[in-house]
Design brief:
Order of helices and strands: EEEEEEEEEEE
Number of strands: 11
Largest sheet: 7 strands, mixed
Strand content: over 45%
Shape: globular
Distance between the termini: 41 Å
Number of helices: 0
Radius of gyration: 13 Å
Helix content: under 10%
């Protein structure tokens, strides 16, 4: 059974950077679509970026395009989210999630979730 653990969150000033990690255990990430989500206080969960299960193509929502980069290290069974030019509105709990073998990673059907990591952007 695949399990996910996020790390790398913290506090940073506006304009700063953080790299979040999503370490998988219990299974390899082969054939899993992987996504990063966030939930800000008082707001609904928002999908940010994902990697397709078949060809690993990355996708980004407009709010993070050009600032965030999703990547995957198969040797470490880990997915990363590099976040640059952070803004106060990026403050949220960030989650990674996985779903097995879907046609495209932009799907609401993620069924394996990590526990989340807090990111706070403040001066």
């Amino acid at each position: 059974q695949l399990q996910l653990v996020e790390s790398g969150g913290g506090s940073v000033q506006p304009g700063g950077s953080l790299r979040l990690s999503c370490a998988a255990s219990g299974s390899t990430l082969d054939y899993y679509a992987i996504a990063w989500f966030r939930r800000a206080p008082g707001k609904e969960r928002e999908g940010l970026s994902c990697l397709d299960s078949m060809d690993g193509s990355p996708y980004y929502v407009d709010s993070v395009k050009g600032r965030f980069t999703i990547s995957r290290d198969n040797a470490k069974n880990t997915v990363y989210l590099q976040m640059n030019s952070l803004k106060p509105e990026d403050t949220a709990v960030y989650y990674c999630a996985a779903v097995y073998l879907v046609p495209q990673c932009y799907t609401p059907n993620y069924d394996i979730w990590g526990q989340g990591t807090q990111v706070t952007v403040s001066s």
